Amino acid sequence: MSDKLLIEKTVPGREGCSLPEIDCPAPPLDMLFPSSLLREKSPSLPEMSESDVVRHFYNLAKKNYSIDEGMYPLGSCTMKYNPKVNEELSKLDGFTHIHPYQSIDSVQGALELIYELQHFLEEISGMDKITLQPAAGAHGEFTGVAIIRAYHEDRKDKKRTKMIVPDSAHGTNPASSAMNGFEVVEVKSDSDGLVDIEALKGLLGADVAGIMLTNPNTLGLFEKNIVRIAKLAHDAGALLYYDGANMNAILGYTRPGDMGFDIVHFNLHKTFSTPHGTGGPGSGPIGVKRDLIPFLPVPTVERSAEGKYFLNYDKPKSIGRVRSFYGNFIVLVKAYAYLLSVGKDNLKKISQMAVLNANYLMSLIKEHYRIPYDTICKHEFVATGKEYKKYGVKTLDIAKRLLDYGIHPPTIYFPLIVSEALMFEPTETESKESLEEYANILKRIAEEAKRKPELLKNAPSKTPVRRLNEVKAVRDMKLRW
Q1: Main-chain phi, psi angles of 165, to 5 degrees
Q2: What sign does the CA torsion over 340, 346, 351, 356 have?
Q3: Domain spans in the chain, listed from the N-terminal domain onward
Q4: Strands, sheet with 411-412, edge to edge from the N-terminal-most edge strand
Q5: Class of domain 347-475
Q6: Would the CATH topology of 98-342 be identical to that of 347-475?
Q7: CATH code that applies to domain 98-342
Q8: Which tens digits make up the pLDDT trace of 161-175?
Q9: Less packed terminus of the chain by CB within 10 Å, N or C?
Q10: Would the pLDDT of 279 be above 60?
Q11: pLDDT digits (tens, 9 = 90+) for 295-322
């Protein structure tokens, strides 16, 4: 199999298709385009047969790893199998052949889907109003924090300049806060891996705008003091923000709105089974409680008393647009189809199986990889490879060795409060057999770390690309040929 680029495989004069001669006069190019945009010579494009092109891309695809090939246990980044029926439904002409500039009357079906999906998410989260505009989870976070800022500014409470974020938080939490102009204040975790209540009390004051939390947290542990945390925040005049990345653990059992959260973002490309990866496309809707509805982005999709759907731009306190039009519509279609196929009564089963799978996998590997917070987890758990450092093996080496076995590693080195962290989230779509296979490979690698550490330190040895200089890859990126 050649690793050459298409342009390197070119054979002068070779064609991949043949077209009939033009049977009508073609207008001069300078009539179609300004002369300043016309090339002086033809572009250098690959000259290849159709079969050569197909084989090139097929062979590239075989080098990739996907959820269709095997387990993808990325902690804090739910990667569940995506039912193909959702993909097929999203390809219907009525969804793919419409345009946002069409008249409102001609896209009533699309607006109905948006409106109903908003309602589903309101019910699931316990929020009073949803917007589907944000294009990803981090974008949803940014939008939610912007609403927190607008809320306090509307109340002329401009002294609230701080956002409290746990030391176990996703990195997007402090980033979203800082990009909205807030000073990020870290609150430490206690010995149980939960928010330290006494430390939180010491940080709350008249200068705090809000607290950002995910529940369960990134250790896969449920914040059992969440109602108390919400009361402390509200008594101090702050708002409570729910990072929805870990919502796969609580569907049908509890709702952020019932816990006391004021704002929540969802990851439709995680929890609600639409594909994600390589930067998109994603979808990060946010929901708010009643007092924050005036600040939502415009437009919002509403339904009139006559049952007609329309776009509402009449929101003088709105933070404005956060994305063109109404969100990543095709992603919304897939999430809508997923929720309809699962049904309200089966939401609990998603979380039941996700929690069961995580605890089962944890029980299988804990003898070989210590669990720093060794208790029943929710949808994910964090182990550590710290004990293998005495053999010269790091968590990075364990992850690289997993690639040699043809499986995807978990998230590593996160959360930062766990040394040499390995963060697993198997999701509900994995079978007992796939979990056992994964655990057996992890056990084998643990033995290799003790007896043949060089195997791990030189891994991967069986992949198309061997181990990279990761510092150079980040600092000296080659983004084009």
Answers
A1: -135, 130
A2: negative
A3: 6-38+45-62, 98-342, 347-475
A4: 381-384, 421-424, 411-412
A5: alpha beta
A6: no
A7: 3.40.640.10
A8: 999 999 999 999 999
A9: C
A10: no
A11: 999 999 999 999 999 999 999 999 999 9
